[in-house]
Design goal:
53 residues, mainly alpha, Integrase catalytic domain-containing protein, RNaseH-like_sf, Integrase_cat-core
């Protein structure tokens, strides 16, 4: 980390959340906070263990 305000430090998280929204969230209705939490946990497992990078 190179310090406050450096956009390069934030790019990995911006990329992750962009992919999460694109691959999991867009176009699907969610009905509860618990459902969203379970789907995000499932996606994180998929992202780190099964997704081809």
């Amino acid at each position: 980390m190179s310090g406050k305000g450096n956009y390069l430090d934030n790019s990995p998280m911006e990329n992750f959340f962009g992919l999460l929204k694109q691959e999991m969230y867009y176009g699907e209705a969610l009905y509860s906070l618990e459902e969203l939490k379970k789907r995000i946990e499932k996606y994180i497992y998929y992202y780190y263990n099964k997704r081809i990078k």
